[in-house]
Design brief:
Elements: H1 14-29, H2 34-48, E1 53-59, E2 65-70, H3 73-85, H4 89-96, E3 100-102, H5 113-121, E4 126-134, E5 137-146, H6 154-171, H7 184-208, H8 212-225, H9 230-240
Antiparallel strand pairs: 1-2, 1-5, 3-4, 4-5
Length: about 250
């Protein structure tokens, strides 16, 4: 009797996906810190999906996209570069409200000349961008970067869309869908919290001569281990020169 080949292992772990959904739900139910929530989301995108980095952009009160969360400094810098040059997939996603994927950025130099050139220069080979949208209202974009070329699998694309939807619902949770008018107040608070966190990361990085990604890990780990909000810890670092300690060795 010929042995039938076994089905390939799914790339997306069901257990990890369930754990992620529970963790995000707990974050929303408990003291809600939008920066912590979106930070967890970008981290989980990298863990769950075949991507190397992730970032989230949100529109401010003027309808202008701003970088609000990223899984690494490289992802943040790429998104800032995209915004500064008004050239890249997240801008197209925000305008169209549709998913945009580029399996090979070498083939996108005509579409996004500046973004593609810079992304390739820093080792990014492909991108998958998902709108953060509730019905007709688009409030931002989830951007997924891969070092290699190729598309996400169908299952991964579904998970990416689900995570983007969760982020959107989290941001809009206090507003009734039927009475939804504007989200600029909450989004502006998120943007201000992000600025505070960037200042705290810079302060810890300079204080201990470490890179900003490591500084973020230090701040995040302290906040989680002590049951404190990420924004609260960042505020203490910036305004009270608080030091969370526990700097990882090189």
């Amino acid at each position: 009797m010929t042995e039938q080949p076994s089905d390939p292992e799914p790339r997306v772990s069901n257990n990890l996906l369930i754990h992620t959904l529970v963790q995000l739900a707990d974050t929303l139910i408990n003291d809600y810190d939008v920066i912590e929530f979106l930070g967890i989301l970008t981290e989980r995108c990298v863990t769950l999906l075949d991507v190397d980095e992730a970032g989230i952009m949100l529109a401010d009160q003027h309808g202008t996209l701003q970088v609000i969360a990223s899984s690494s400094e490289r992802a943040k810098l790429m998104e800032l570069f995209e915004l500064q040059n008004r050239d890249g997939p997240c801008l197209d996603v925000f305008r169209s409200g549709e998913v945009i994927a580029a399996a090979d950025l070498r083939e996108q130099t005509g579409r996004w000349p500046t973004f593609s050139r810079e992304a390739l220069a820093v080792g990014i080979g492909s991108v998958h961008s998902v709108p953060m949208r509730l019905r007709r209202q688009v409030i931002g974009a989830l951007n997924l970067f891969r070092n290699g070329v190729g598309m996400l699998s169908d299952d991964e694309a579904v998970v990416a869309r689900a995570l983007a939807d969760i982020a959107t619902i989290g941001l809009l949770q206090e507003r009734s869908i039927t009475e939804l008018r504007t989200t600029t107040g909450q989004l502006q608070t998120a943007l201000q919290s992000r600025v505070l966190l960037e200042q705290a990361k810079g302060a810890i990085a300079e204080r201990h001569s470490i890179d900003v990604d490591t500084a973020f890990v230090v701040i995040r780990n302290y906040a989680r281990s002590h049951g404190r909000l990420l924004t609260e810890v960042a505020r203490n670092i910036v305004y009270e020169r608080f030091d969370p300690g526990q700097i990882p060795s090189a």
